[in-house]
Specification:
Layout: E1 2-4, E2 10-12, H1 20-41, E3 50-51, E4 62-66, E5 72-75, E6 81-83, H2 88-95, E7 102-106, H3 112-124, E8 130-132, E9 135-136
Parallel strand pairs: 3-9, 4-7, 7-8
Antiparallel strand pairs: 1-2, 4-5, 5-6
Amino acid sequence: MAFTNPQGRTQSSLADINITPLVDVVLVLLIIFMLTTPVLQSGIDVAVPKTRTVKEVTQQRAVLTIKRDQTLYLSFGGADKAVNIHDIPAIVHGRVHPDQAVYVRADENIPFGLFASVMDSLKQGGITNISVVTQPLTENSK
């Protein structure tokens, strides 16, 4: 498109779009997503037991993880924080509604006594809805 200026000369308008800032923003977003995706999927590495019936849950809930070395970690949808078994009732009492589910991710090789103690600690904190996290049983592991 041409314009006539007061001196009588015609000038063309700049119709080009500068895409350099767009490319910069897209690359920065790509780098951010590449860095945050592994963090979102990371967590405490636990070999949970395999069962035939597994219900997939998509909601964010409180998760108590018991590692093979019997350390406990508690997460409320964010980063996992190491906790003492004796502190669990006080922590969950103030942060989790009694009707809300708490998921327990326990390594399949931990002693049952520890698992029972953790369940008791959650009950002492007023939690009545406790779910155990498992993996689906595959055809190869039968």
